[in-house]
Amino acid sequence: MLAAAPATAGQQAVDLPAGRLGDAVLALGRQSGTSIVVDPAIWSRRVPAIRGRMTMRAALDRLAAAAGANVAPAGAIGWRLVARPIPVVPKPRPRTPAIAIAAPETGPDVVVTASKRDVNARDFAGQVALLDGVDLAFGGAGGTDAIVARLASVSSTHLGAGRNKLFIRGIADSSFTGPTQTTVGQYLGDLRLSYNAPDPDLRLYDIASVEVLEGPQGTLYGAGSLGGILRT
User: Fold this and answer.
1) Quick one: fold of 2-83?
2) Model confidence over 73-83: pLDDT tens digits?
3) CA–CA dist 15, 31 (Å, integer)
4) Using CA atoms, how far apart are residues 1 and 202, in angstroms rounded to an integer?
């Protein structure tokens, strides 16, 4: 919107009523004979009454301050009132929550001594089941029945202590003992306990571990290891 007349540089009497910015600018233009352009976006903003002797620029500055506007020259004899730009507040950068990565748990290496080479279980080229001696002794000392109850790969005929035959992976020649060598080699350390006799059902005390190597085993253990090896 435009209020037009010749510009006046010195102080003069100003009498502007309270109300809309556009109405106050029209009154100021008539009183001062100055061209004033008002941004339509701020035309209806409310301003207080302004009275007294002042320069044209001082009156415009007071109107602009009340209306939230800026004053700028418009040519040699005019002025412009434009809306102040809304400051852009930068959005805060989202914070990436710190993720604590737990260190991998490391425990002592499990050594397969039944291989007769003391290799780590993860490096052993075969199927091996390990039973810790503490787990074996839980609930009291036990014999082979305690091993059968804890290792799924080992089974028994359950004929009674001193008469049981053990099987690994279900491989068996018969439920009864005979002249042929058993399919499971039972060892106490490096000592083989039997050739074709039933399980001796030893009472196992202070045993570090029980290892079951699933067969068939090679020449390291001979013919009596088709099903596998049970080593205590």
Assistant:
1) Phage tail protein beta-alpha-beta fold (3.55.50)
2) 887 778 888 88
3) 8
4) 110
